[in-house]
Amino acid sequence: GKELLANYGIRKTNVEDLTIAAGISKGAYYKFYPSKEALFFEILEGLEHDMRTVFFGEFLVPGLTPRESFQTKMQGVLRFIEENPLMGKMNSEEINHLQRTLPKELLEAHSKKDDRELSAFVKSWKEEGYLRDFDPETVAAFLKSVFILALQKQEIGSEYERMMKMLIDMASQYLIRD
Question: Quick one: which of 106, 100, 89 has its CA closest to 47?
Answer without folding.
Answer: 89
